[in-house]
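Q: What would this chain look like folded?
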Amino acid sequence: MQLRYAFRLDPTLCQRIALDRAFGCARVVYNDAVAARERARAAGEAFPTAAVLSRVLITEAKKTRERHWLGEVSAVVLQQALRDAEAAYRNFFASLTGKRQGPRLGVPRFRSRKDARQAVRFTANARWSITSTGRLCLPKIGEVRVRWSRALPSVPSSVTVIKDAAGRYFASFVIDTDPAADLERMPASDQAVGIDLGLTHFAVLSDGTKIDSPRFLRRAEKKLKKAQRELSRKQKGSKNRAKARVKVARAHARVADARREFHHQLSTELICENQAVAVEDLAVGGLARTRLAKSIHDAGWSQFVHMLAYKAARYGRIFVKVGRFEPTSQVCSACGHRDGPKPLHVREWTCTVCGTTHDRDHNAAINIKAAGLAVTACGARVRPERVPAQRGEAGSHGIRTGARAA
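A: My prediction, written as structure tokens:
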């Protein structure tokens, strides 16, 4: 499995200028590639290949007066910008034809220097390295100081230097993990858990544990409003407005970082303690269009579920998404009686058959766990294997008889 390890960078003033130059050159090459393909589409011609674009937009462009400054950055950065444009068109056409799942992707657009995220990628042939003193040596940029928070498990295959909206620089390393080491790090467990995600409590587990929602955005709302108000009062195009915009971006970055750290700690704890994890497949996109949109975005359910999924795959755990139409809040976890839908303000209810009083979220978590175990049976095969049909069952009459008997 390939994972990314991100670390904060502290470039000097000269290194920041060199990185900004690399961001700009990669952006220009990407935009030139998109423009070339759009011209070919408008003319009804075939799209130029990557080799043709590389020769025209990089090799020959460096010799011109208008693009001579492309030679001031690493050629690998420019080549990777062309690969990004090619991947953008490939994903667009795959989404257009239905081969790519998920929401429909739009036509690749031009990149802007005002985009919130700027990035360049260095592959192995760029000859970047990590020095003995722990600095990241990048071609035509120099040795950049890295804030190492942990050791890399293996030698990275590539590194991406990122500048976010808050003006912070990061180095994102691509690492190939060792499956044997991961399994040794997380020994097998005989526990299973069902998770019911919510707003009052971020998560309620099937064992009765309730995890409060931190509400990072709500707690920082006062500071965010103040920073945004100061930004709105600055004159457009002024340096003070640029400084105020960075303040707003940093305030939002602190909220996002705190939420991400909370999700990482909780997901790692759940994966470490349980062999099987079941969670309800919520329609977050639809719920985010309701009056609870701010609270739902503040909770970050999608990011948390994604972390559970990839950590389960990495450490050999079983992860199950229970269908969103499963009546987990309507079924009594004690006797299995379906008591019907209930409004959201009903947090406790009593089963009319067995008389058991349930906490709404805890009962849903128990049902989610049961539904997850029913699907996976903790890794065992639930449905019998397919066997060749007997001679007497091969005809259509036998199939109808078997279906009627079932």
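The chain has a mean pLDDT of 89.
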